[in-house]
Amino acid sequence: MDIIAYGVLADERSALEQAFGERHDLRCLDLVLNQDTAPTAAGYEAVISSVNDCLAADVLRALAQGGTRLVTQRSTGYHNIDLDQARRLGLTVARVAHYSPYAVAEFAWALALAVNRRVVRAVWRTREFDFRLTGLMGRDFHGRTVGILGTGRIGTAFAGIANGFGMRLLGWDITQNARCLALGMEYVDLDPLLEAADLVSLHLPLVPETHRLLGADALGRMRRDAILINTSRGGLIDAGALVETLRQGGLDGVGLDMYEEEAGVSFDRSLEVMADDTLAQLMTFRNVLVTSHQAYFTQDAVGEIVDTTVRNVEDYLAGRTGENTLTSPHDQA
């Protein structure tokens, strides 16, 4: 089968090519899939997408007209795909339901520790042979309170590490996770969690109910010395409200592995003027650390993502559906 993959990173290409081997004709592109680039998929029965691609209604129509019957996204999130349109077109859409939760949980802690202990600021200083400690004081996490929004696989892994630090665990989710309860987590409503937590970490899907969950009001409820970490989805936080909160002296630090409008800036912009004013403002705060949506990016997690993508293709060819299937021709609207 002819397959085309979009948004393929250099470190991913060899893994994808090796995984598909000689069984299928795979073409890897570093292009973002959108309305302008959709014609490049003409003649390819399967499209492998990334979370940064735009699979809106018009893009899906263009893919279907070009002969595409399968879209398999190599991510857990799928907010960028118009599933209703996919059903109307009779497309099969799949995703990667699970991959290593430790990759994201460990990176969330890397951000939390770096923000708390001012690691980036210290590195820049020492590169200039400035070894002063002024402005580098952090706090022990031991004995403090962490609020975890979303206690699925990743949130649970994050909670396990927090427990190792000796922290009090507060959780917020629609269901209580038995593994988190066994760690001593107390489930509370959102407002008291935000008011009590020294560290807040987001591990939620982006759905209408969680879009901009942390807006001006919620951010205003957080302790002024709290740290906020987001390795989940950028749209969980109202970026404009976050800028205003920081401008008013709220929050001790912020670590973001994604940004609300990251789809337009998640590539090399080093030689361009940053047109996104909100992101540019966020980057001016010395207590904000922004990374490149890399929390998942370990050999282990990428290997699992590639393996699952191959299984999704094989399931499609065999007419099977499973936990990764989001739409199929059988549920055509």
Please provide a brief summary of the model.
Helix content is 36%, strand content 15%. The protein is an alpha/beta fold and 333 residues long. Helix 1 (10-20) crosses helix 12 and helix 4 (101-116) packs across helix 6.
SSE topology sketch:
Layout: E1 2-5, H1 10-20, E2 25-28, E3 46-49, H2 57-65, E4 70-73, H3 83-89, E5 92-94, H4 101-116, H5 119-127, E6 145-149, H6 153-165, E7 168-172, H7 178-182, E8 186-187, H8 190-196, E9 199-202, H9 216-221, E10 227-230, H10 239-247, E11 253-256, H11 277-284, E12 288-290, H12 299-318, E13 325-327
Parallel strand pairs: 1-2, 1-3, 3-4, 4-5, 6-7, 6-9, 7-8, 9-10, 10-11, 11-12
Antiparallel strand pairs: 5-13
Helix pairs in contact: 1-12, 4-6, 10-11
Descriptive notes:
There is one protein chain. The protein is of the alpha/beta class and 333 residues long. It has 2 domains: 2-99 and 299-331, Rossmann fold (3-Layer(aba) Sandwich); 101-290, Rossmann fold (3-Layer(aba) Sandwich). The chain has helices spanning 10-20, 57-65, 83-89, 101-116, 119-127, 153-165, 178-182, 190-196, 216-221, 239-247, 277-284, 299-318; strands at 2-5, 25-28, 46-49, 70-73, 92-94, 145-149, 168-172, 186-187, 199-202, 227-230, 253-256, 288-290, 325-327. Strands 8-7-6-9-10-11-12 form a 7-stranded parallel sheet, sandwiched between helices. A 6-stranded mixed sheet has the order 2-1-3-4-5-13. Helix 9 (216-221) links the parallel strand 9 (199-202) and strand 10. Helix 4 (101-116) crosses helix 6. The radius of gyration is 21 Å and the shape is globular. The two termini are 26 Å apart. 41% of the residues are buried.
